[in-house]
Structures are given as C-alpha cells and as structure tokens.
Amino acid sequence: AAEWGYTKRNGPFTWAKNYPTAAGIRQSPVDIDTALATSDSSLESKPLRWKYVPQNTRTIVNSGHGWRVDVDSEGSELVGGPLEGTYKLQQFHCHWGSSSDKGSEHTVDGQSYAAELHLVHWNSSKYADCGEAADYPDGLTVLGVLLKVGAKNPELQKVIDLIPSISHRGEKTEVKEAIDPAKMLPKTLSYWTYLGSLTVPPCNESVTWILFKEPVEVSEEQLAAFRSLRCYKRGEECPCDEVDGLLISNYRPTLPLGTRELRECGS
Ligand SMILES: NS(=O)(=O)c1ccc(C(=O)NCc2ccccc2F)cc1
Ligand SMILES: [Zn+2]
Q: How far is CA 63 from the centre of its chain?
C-alpha cells in the first residue's frame, strides 16, 4: 500500500482507508477550547514530575515523516498529574508547517503555532515496551510543547546541527552531543490533558495527552532547517508530489474532541 504521508494523495484525509482507527472517536490532535477546560484538584495535588538522562539520547533518524530522536528509556521517568504508574521516555520528534503561521498539531482556541514538539513515553508499570504499550488505552503519554517563532532554541539547535546528515528517508546518525529533553520544556508547567491517540498512522487510541500551556521559542532559521528534510530515500526518485520531496509540512489537522473531557492544571 502506498506509504502514508502528508500530501494530497497520501495525507491525513486518506489515512482511514488503510488505518481504520484514524476514523475513531478518541483521535488527536484536537483544538483546545480553553472555555471547555475544567480545572481538577486531583491534578493539582499530584504535580507532574520527570527525570531524563541526556546521555541516553542515542540516535536521530529521518523517518520519512520528520526527524525523531530515539532514547534509551532506562533511567527516565514521568509520573504524576493524570498518570497512574510510571512512564518512560522512548523518543521525541516534531511537527511543523510550510510557513510559521501553521504547523502545530494541537490548536488553542483555533490558533495554530509554528510547530509542536512531542516527547513520547510508555507505561513501564504495566507493559514491556513501547510497541506493546501502544496497543492499550493507558499505554502511552505524550508531552506536547507548542513552538512559536522567536529566539533560537539552543537545545533544539543540537538537533538542527544533525539534520544535514539525515537529509533523506531512513538515514540515521549517532547523537554525540547529549540533548536534554528537560531543557526543551517550558518554564511554567501548566497544562491541558485529555485522552487521545497517536497523530500518525496507525493512530492508536492509546495516548494520554499532556499539552503545556506555555509555548517555547524557536527561530525561523531552525524551522527552515526542519523543512529541508526529504521524504524519500537517497538515490530514489521523489515519490511524493511535495515540492521536490521536501518535508515542508507534517502536521495532522485537528479532529473533534467529541464527548471527551478536557482538564487543565495551573493557570
Ligand atoms: N505524533 S505522536 O502522537 O506523538 C506519535 C507518538 C508515537 C508514535 C509511535 O510510536 N509510532 C510507532 C508505533 C506505532 C504503533 C505501535 C507501535 C509503535 F511503535 C507515533 C506518533
Ligand atoms: Zn508527534
């Protein structure tokens, strides 16, 4: 089957053909209608806490859908907030648009941001690995960080510096200079949380989403570097009808929240 992607031919509106879950009722991303959010004392009573090991960021790969930094989960943990048990960091990646007026996956009161960073964790209290966890409703948690245009982001610059060596799909390289995921999170830890899904096929409905309210800055040049990735393999011709196979946009449009609860913690 033609590999899914973000073009007319294989983009988000075609995914349900090969991935029926994409048409489900707990899909992500969603528009965060801030007026709908209910503040929840139980969230306030269990602060979100994380521990990451920067030396455990191992490799960065061009998945054909963007860049992804794979992490050795050992030593990491995410607990508290809406979570039961301990979650471990598996990978982090980003979504962006062809220009910085769009590109985030979640929107806030209809407003898009320039990009969105996802830190993907799996429930190590109940499951053996990320792959298994992805099949259960409480299997995964993704910390989402909205990115807006501003100052150059020094931690993300370590990712940008590696992009030239993973320009084509399937290429990967060692992350030599440790990247600290904690340094990519906003200062204030207020967040919205709701039950959703992977935002790419197979769109498993197994994600507890935690989206920080405060955006983090990234520069236009850094966003331009993301868009220089190619969605096809070196030596192959470009399959996608994207402008010469550049990954200029890799965000899924929002889906209805439906009857799901949207909770918030912090102002
Ligand atoms: N954009 S996002 O919502 O943050 C997102 C998070 C994780 C994945 C993932 O793990 N895919 C591989 C995968 C899929 C299904 C089962 C096991 C897997 F490893 C994909 C998207
Ligand atoms: Zn993502």
A: 13
